[in-house]
């Protein structure tokens, strides 16, 4: 998950404009592997839940897809009358606690001390997120969290 957090509390629109211009001139997949260096980061991310449901019939119609004849090659009586896409994202403290328990167990069992984070990344105002496939670089889900609990 990539988190886009502006410096200013209400700076997301400006960040989107700058990021859009930058990414149109940059291969974002190569950016993550070539220009960035590994750094220990402590991430403080609030719990959030995000979901969206889209009526794909309207999307297909805008794209010019003729749904009445889309399946006639299989059977003339088949028609698509409903297509819905729904996606949900949920992060919460249970996931964070589970990771912390694993880390604590590792520390106790192996007696290895984890290095202190070089950077503390606190997400405390509106942000955008992108979930992408690390192999293909494809964005699987994007969203904006405007209100934090």
From TrEMBL:
Pfam families recorded:
Serpin
Q: Record's Gene Ontology CC terms?
A: extracellular space
Q: Which residues cross the membrane?
A: none
Record carries keyword Glycoprotein: yes
The entry lists its GO molecular-function terms as: serine-type endopeptidase inhibitor activity
Q: Which residues form a coiled coil?
A: none
Q: What residue stretches are annotated with the Serpin domain?
A: 1-146
Respond yes or no to whether keyword Glycoprotein is given for this record: yes
Which keywords does this chain's UniProt record carry? Glycoprotein, Protease inhibitor, Serine protease inhibitor
Q: Which family does it belong to?
A: Belongs to the serpin family.
Q: What is this protein called?
A: Serpin domain-containing protein
Q: Which organism is it from?
A: Leptotrombidium deliense
């Amino acid at each position: 998950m990539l988190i886009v957090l502006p410096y200013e509390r209400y700076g997301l629109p400006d960040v989107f404009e700058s990021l859009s211009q930058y990414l149109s001139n940059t291969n974002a997949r190569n950016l993550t592997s070539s220009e960035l260096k590994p750094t220990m980061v402590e991430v403080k991310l609030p719990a959030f839940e995000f979901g969206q449901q889209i009526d794909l019939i309207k999307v297909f119609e805008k794209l010019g897809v003729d749904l009445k004849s889309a399946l006639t090659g299989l059977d003339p009586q088949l028609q698509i009358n409903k297509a819905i896409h729904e996606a949900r994202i949920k992060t919460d403290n249970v996931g964070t606690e589970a990771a912390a328990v694993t880390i604590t167990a590792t520390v106790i069992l192996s007696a290895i001390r984890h290095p202190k984070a070089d950077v503390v990344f606190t997400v405390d105002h509106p942000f955008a997120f992108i979930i992408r496939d690390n192999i293909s670089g494809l964005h699987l889900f994007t969203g904006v969290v405007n209100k934090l609990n």
